[in-house]
Amino acid sequence: MPSHPDDYRVVRSIAVTASDVVMAHEANQSRRDQRAVIRLTPPFNGRMRARLHLVREGDAYQPPEPAPLHIDPEALIDAAPPYPHAEDTETTLRAESETQYTVEEHYERHRAAVDAWRTDVLSRLKETVTLVGRHGQHTVDVKVLGGESGLSK
Q1: Element (DSSP H or E) covering residue 51
Q2: What is the pLDDT of residue 152?
Q3: CA-CA distance, 70 to 36, in Å (whole number)?
């Protein structure tokens, strides 16, 4: 078994909050200027805490500093549902003949659609994930911490 502190193959499980996974995936679906990941920071050991991280242009790690491992949040979701974009909510609302379009109604409908999407994503969190890095693939257990705290409103 590997024993070097930068070898992620020693990891047996990761713990991540449900809200970090959902927020990272939402950021990747709704923003194009930054990428969100779930990050494992060395030194690696059997049980690791994974956290939300925004990747910034120019983020680089130089040896001998061990590089963190980045996990695409979608890898933690089983068949991620499509994100409800505001434009789609507006199109649906305007197509309804019995409802008059207002900015307030659009806002409320879109907020409800995003809340429902978040709940759906939470119900699809995986129990394992495959880490990928310079040592190849390594599958670990995922321990999801918390529920919906911080996701709505």
Answers
A1: strand 51-55
A2: 41
A3: 9
